[in-house]
Amino acid sequence: MTTATASPAAVAHRRRRRNLAWLRGVAIAAVCLVFALPVVWMFAAAFKTNVQVTDPSVGLFFSPTLDNFRAVLGDSEIPRAMMNSLIVGAISTALSAVIAVPAAWAVGRFRMYRTGSLILVARIVPAISLLVPWYYLFAQAGLVGSYTVLVLSHMFVSVPLILWIMISFFERLPVELEEAARTDGLSAFGAFWRIALPLAAPGTATASLLAFVFSWNNFMFALVFADESTQTVPVTMFNFISYAGTDWGGLMAAATLMSVPVVLAAVLGQRYLVAGLTAGATKS
């Protein structure tokens, strides 16, 4: 009798779970469609002529052309700008990690939260409010137009970003491991270098990737501090927009090329990125 009375309830429960699974799948598909549609349109427009791009009747079925990519790679400043972005992004991210990761370990291990909060102020202050004094100081030092000024300005945001991401990672690491290492004769920094840093590698990769993406996409700093020889991709892409009109095909081709390094970095670092974003989720 108990089985007979419980059976309809179990069937109803399974039906509810199935309906919730379908609803969740539909919601995920809708969100993915909303975010993926602009990317798909950009990629398709990169292979269209300007006439096709502005023609609403031309959808995803058209005769593709490579003329936009030939023009971007051969007749524009995009290749040089991508190299500039890569140089600035790689150097600023590396230097930011060298500074922020040990600082995050110190803040997390020694509970230096006031110092961490002071560094966070640099992340909260709008960067645009600092452009005028920065420009004056960098101009007096003769750095405007150089890679140095771009790297330093990007580090102003990247260091606090990496620091605050990494604090939580070091706080979740068992302190007993470092205490055991210090008992064996290592210094505090030796315990950090040999024990904490390798264990926090997923977090370091995640924070560094996010810092690199910020640097790669940054427009404002390069617009103010760079010259023609050090312009980065976001600024150079404005050359496709003029008073007479917009070269939509070239702009979309340049945007597609600009997306490739970030996508490759995310794909190659996916293992560390997923591990970093989920680190500590199952820990108490």
Automatic annotation (TrEMBL):
InterPro entries: BP-dep_ABC_trans_perm, MetI-like, MetI-like_sf. Gene3D superfamilies: MetI-like. Keywords: Cell membrane, Membrane, Transmembrane, Transmembrane helix, Transport. Pfam families: BPD_transp_1 (PF00528). Residues 82-269 form the ABC transmembrane type-1 domain. It is a multi-pass membrane protein. Belongs to the binding-protein-dependent transport system permease family. This is Carbohydrate ABC transporter permease. It comes from Streptomyces millisiae.
